[in-house]
Write a structure and sequence with these properties.
The chain is α/β, with parallel strands linked by helices. 41% of the residues lie in helices and 15% in strands. It is built from 10 helices and 10 strands. The protein has a 5-stranded parallel β-sheet with strand order 5-4-6-7-10. The protein has a 3-stranded parallel β-sheet with strand order 2-1-3, sandwiched between helices. It has a two-stranded antiparallel ribbon with strand order 8-9. Helix 7 links the parallel strand 4 and strand 5. The longest helix has 19 residues. Bound molecules: guanine. The site of guanine has 7 residues, from strand 3.
Amino acid sequence: MILDGKAVSAKIIEDLKTELARKGTTPHLAVILVGDDPASRVYVRNKKKKAEYIGIKADIFEYPADVEETVILKKIDELNENPEVTAILVQMPLPEHISKEKVICRISPEKDVDCFTPENAGRLAIGMEPYFYPATPQGVLMLLDAYGIPIEGKHAVVIGRSNIVGKPMAQMLLRRNATVTMCHSKTQNLEEIIKTADIVVSAVGKKIVRCKMVKNKPVIIDVGIYRDSNGNLTGDVEYAEVEPLAGYITPVPGGVGPMTIASLMFNIVKS
Ligand code: GUN
């Protein structure tokens, strides 16, 4: 069965729009965008469009690639102090000369809708409530919950250990009482591990989940999204071969991608 992230996210977006209209409040998102990375521009434009559709005020602050780090840090201070700004997002990646760590640490945890700050990431790690959960793993859980897929006691295999997907995904699955195995590029016997999974979350960015690894009808969540040599959008899972062997599976595109944006909007409305 296909997990239709597009449909589930559309419902979440409509519910958020209704909630804001009912409350009569307007959250305010500030996005900092540095340089002219084309993918970042598309992401930021899409976030702004979706936010405004829901009734969120969204401002983008754009800087050239050679902007000084101090300018960005000062802007973050200003946004932190502005009581009208409820959510701050610094689009990654940043140019080399700007310290990602410094920038992340400067964001007020109460406005950190990405869950990038040490305060929020640390809270998540030690089982305290963060101000916000990271968008992609939260979106994955929203999708599993929308289909009533049980998590407690299940063996979840997370492939990829990034700070924004793999690590928080594992922690959030643990919080939901899954038995979690973390895999990454140096993992041995990946095939044998995936064969024992009830839930597979792949966040690697290259083809890694193949049909010979899939046994016992697992739930397959494909977080990977990139263009193949023909320019087509694709994910980590060899979809055509794996789909018949999976209990549930997310397509790429139309699976996790739209859930991530809905989940981010959920955080901004919460802010
Ligand atoms: N760049 C790629 N993914 C993300 C994300 O989730 N948040 C931000 N701020 N930048 C990104």
